[in-house]
Amino acid sequence: MNPIRFKTAIIVGACAAAFAAPASAGTQNTNLGVSATVNANCTVSAAPVDFGTVDTLSATAVLGSGSVTVTCTSGTSWTAAADVGGGSGATFATRRMTDGGNTLDYTLFRDAARTQVWGDGSGTTFTVGNTGSGSAQTFNVYGRVPGGQSSVPAGGYSDIVGVTITY
What we know:
There is one protein chain. The chain is mainly beta. The protein has one domain (44-166): Fimbrial-type adhesion domain (Immunoglobulin-like, Sandwich), CATH 2.60.40.1090. Helices cover 10% and strands 32% of the residues. The protein is built from one helix and eight strands, in the order αββββββββ. The chain has a five-stranded antiparallel beta sheet, with no helix packed on it. The radius of gyration is 38 Å and the shape is rod-shaped. The chain starts with a helix and ends with a strand.
């Protein structure tokens, strides 16, 4: 091949490469999946029922109230039940606060009229229920210490009632 022709071919080839159309960049699309699982969950807390000072010589009942606050995941149905407490021989209708070996009877109710004994739903007891909203839901607990417990000695009486939230 002629050297001049060879150089010309190289120059023409280089120019053609320099002015050639650029390579086209491609695009691709996809979707990115995002997921999460929200489990049903509840928390519970309580403000105690405080009867204050009780005159056991009086025939008049002493009333008190407290509250339970339940916070459950939105849409989660829940039920609050109460046990009989820790006093020896206690029942739902007659719970017992204690001071050493001494007891002071009381009852807890889910209604202000104090007609529906709060318990575990067995027998004649009632539970409290609702559907969670994601915000705190508070319900009142009403108590009554019957009057006329004159054989109960002076002292500081207390009890612990277990509250169970089922959801």
